[in-house]
Design goal:
InterPro entries: Chromosome_initiator_DnaA_CS, DnaA_C, Trp_repressor/repl_initiator. The protein has about 60 residues and is mostly helical. The protein has four helices and no strands. The N and C termini lie far apart (about 25 Å).
Length: about 60
């Protein structure tokens, strides 16, 4: 799950393309990044704890 959250944040906080994000995570395919993004999006809607943790990580990165 941490890798998927990191991919999600990269997608939200950067202008990197899906292939570029995948490459930065060890040569993952762009479809892996899409799947991670969708999975985390779903978790954020369903799980308040994860939502708060991701929000906290995002805030730390934006400081």
């Amino acid at each position: 799950m941490p890798r998927q959250i990191a991919m999600y944040l990269c997608r939200n906080l950067t202008d990197y393309s899906l292939p570029k994000i995948g490459a930065e995570f060890g040569g993952k395919d762009h479809t892996t990044v899409i799947h991670a993004y969708e999975k985390v999006n779903q978790l954020l809607e369903e799980n308040e704890t994860i939502k708060n943790e991701v929000k906290e990580i995002k805030n730390l990165l934006m400081e």
